[in-house]
Each structure stands twice: as C-alpha cells, then as structure tokens.
Amino acid sequence: MSKELPSKFHGLRWQRHSKDLSTSYTSLNQQDPTQNKKYVVEEPRDRFFLVHFLFLLFGLLHLMPLTFLITANNYWMHKFRNVSMEHQDVEYRSPLQRYFTAGTAVAEAVPTIVCTLLATAYGHKFLVRSRIFVTLSVIAACYVLCTIFVKINVNSWQTGFYALTMATLATIQTMLAVYQVTSLVLLAKFPGNYMKFFLFGEGVAGIFTSSLQVVCLAIGGEPETSALIYFCTGTFLLILTLVIFKVVKYLDIYDYYVTLNKEDTKRKTHSFTEAMKVAREIWPCLVIFMTYVATLAATHPSVTSLVISENAGKGYTWNDKYFVPVITFLFSDVCSLCGRLCATGFLTKRNGPFFVTLSFIRSAVLIPLVALCHATPRSHLPVIFNHDWQYIIILACLVFTNGFIQNVSFLSIGKLAPGKEEDALLVLIAFAAVATGLSSPLGITIVKIL
C-alpha cells in the first residue's frame, strides 16, 4: 500500500529515525526538476502484525473494563445477598441484588455524557499518547482495588460497599469515556482495515469474559475465586496493552501514519455549528445508533440478567448454575459478534430513512418481548414466554441485531462523510454518550414495571 504525500512533500521518500516531519524525509536531489512526476511513500510493513494486534486490544478494552465487571454476576449477587437467609432462593433477590445491574447504568450515565463531550471538544489539546496512558493506568488501578476487595468480608456494610462499587464503576467509566474518544482519534489516522480489527476486538470482548466465567464455573470454586480470576485477567490485559502501545511508538508504520497526521494541540475547538453540520451528513448513523443504545439500556443486561431457567430451583446443574452465564452472556455475545461480522457500511442518504424506520420498529417489538420473559422477581407483568427456548430465540434476535446495527453505524461513516472520518467519529461518539446517559434509567424503569 502507498500513501500520497501532500504536494509540498512531492519528491521525498520515507526515512525512519527522526523526531519530526521536517527530518523524516530526504530530498531526491538527483531527480530531474523538469519532469513533472508525483512521488508516493510506500507504507512500511507491520512486522508481526503488532499494530493490528494493538488495535484489536484497543477494541477489546473499549468494552472489556465494564463487561468484566458486569459478567461477574454471581460474585456481585453473592456480595449483595441477604445475609440473614441461610439458603438463598433464586426466586428471591435482595434490593441490592435486584437493582445492581440497572444501578450500574445510572452510575455510568453522568460520567459518560460529561467526559465524552469534554473529550470530544477539548481532547485535542492533550497528546493522544498521554491520554491513552493516563486513562488505561487509572482503569488498571481501579481493577487492582476491585481485586483487593474480593477477599474482604463486606457482610456488615453491604450498603457502603455498594456505594463504593458504584463510585469505582463511575471512575472506570470516566476514564473509559476519554479513552474511547482518544482511541478513535488515533484509529482515524490509519487505513480502514485497522477499523475492522478494532471492531472485531469489541465483539470478542464479551465472548472472552463470558467464556472465562463459564470456565470458572466448570472448574468449581466460590464466586470470589471466579471474580479474582476476572479482575486479575483484566489487569493483565490493561498492562499488556500499555506495554505494546509503548513498543509500537518505535515502529516505522506507526511513525508513518502518525507523522503524516501530526497533532495540533493549539488548534481551535470545533464550534457547535460545525459539529451539527457533520451530524447532518451522518444523521442515519446517529439515529440508528441511538436506537441501539436505548434498546440495549432497556433490556440487556438490566433485564436479561434477571431471567432464570424454567427449571431453576429443581436441582439441575444446567438450570441453576450454567443457564445465566452461558445463555444470557456467552450465547448473547456470540450472537452479537455474528451480527457484527455480517455488517457492512451500506447506509446512504437515500436508504437511510428506511433503515431508521426499521430500527424504531425493532426496538418497539423487542423491548416488550424481553420484558415478558421469565425475569424474576416480578409483581405486575405476567410471564408470557416461560420456556427457555422462547427466551433464547428472543435474546438471539435482540443481540444479533444489536451487533449488526452498531457496526453498520461505524462502517457507514466513510460513505456519508468522506474526508471527514475523524470528525464524524467524534460526533457519533458524542451523540452515543448523550443517548447512553438519557436512556440509562430505562433499565431500572423496566425492572420496576415487571
């Protein structure tokens, strides 16, 4: 692959081991100036696919810090159980158990909105590398804190531990919001094939954590032991990403793209009018993505994590131990990845209205269907879909279309806003943050309606 230089660099060639653009190229003095030739710079090789692997890790970490914590569902249910009950009943959940998953969405809402908007508007004033190192380091520190509390008995101060957990999640989400914006800014400097690795990493994140949960259950042990494995693995992945990010700085291919797209920390912040102009160009992506966010907030995992098997409590290992982690988390993540892999950037201004309408119809159908599954406890709505196979079909439709819509929104940006990919990605992330914050109460609302 080759990359065309700006006109003032025509007649130059790539040369490594330099600190700035002005010394990164050497003039070809032997070239005949009378010949009107245009020179291009050949892309250096990505040795050992290290940069590709880095963006895969970036995609993995886009969701992993939260999915690791949410997927450790048995651990949180154990920490917030009713300690006065000698035997725990799957049909009964304490208030802290019942509202934990939905509460996490609320705890993450404000940091998501505020930090994403600030990072989108003013993030360019700080170097990309600095932002990524700081955010991932803070998230790693939070994981270390969670790991420490795994073996601490909190039965006497469950409410305080609940508040501490929410504060930790809010801190992680604050750093994650900045990291998500920053990683996309860096990704926009690279060709489209790197975006595919990034999106694939996002899809693998859920499968990785859910598979880890199933393995922990299969080998036995207490919920604390499983949580210890999750949090230690998460800390390792965060540190590994930081190390690889440090190494790729010295690779030709990284220098090649980052140098040709030099950061300007003193440029003016985009005005609201400029952002709205970009938003109008990619409006189908924005609307479809926001319906995806709202549907996810109202259903998965706030409601789906409460769904139990029709044979739960009857002494069957599959129904009591494996149903939720395998079906609600692992199976759903596999379906979501399949949806992501099937997605292409097919949205255009012409077909946009049709697919926007289709996305609204999808949400209007799937949210009630999920609410009518066997989620417990419930006091108002009846259980219409009591059988496991019914729930599995509904869940598959929900998460497959979720993954499909998410990737379609990202992959269609190049067609709707050619030449403005970086700005369009930032606008999409900003709108997604607002949608996430505004829709966060939907999970608790649906749980109360049950």
Automatic annotation (TrEMBL):
Keywords associated with the record: Membrane, Transmembrane, Transmembrane helix, Transport
Entry protein name: Equilibrative nucleoside transporter 3
Membrane topology qualifier: Multi-pass membrane protein
Subcellular compartments: Membrane
Main location: membrane
PANTHER family according to UniProt: EQUILIBRATIVE NUCLEOSIDE TRANSPORTER, EQUILIBRATIVE NUCLEOSIDE TRANSPORTER 1, ISOFORM A
Keyword NADP: no
Family of the protein in this entry: Belongs to the SLC29A/ENT transporter (TC 2.A.57) family.
GO MF, one annotated term: nucleoside transmembrane transporter activity
Chain segments annotated as transmembrane: 48-76, 96-120, 132-154, 160-187, 199-221, 227-248, 282-302, 322-342, 354-377, 389-413, 425-447
Annotated Pfam families: Nucleoside_tran
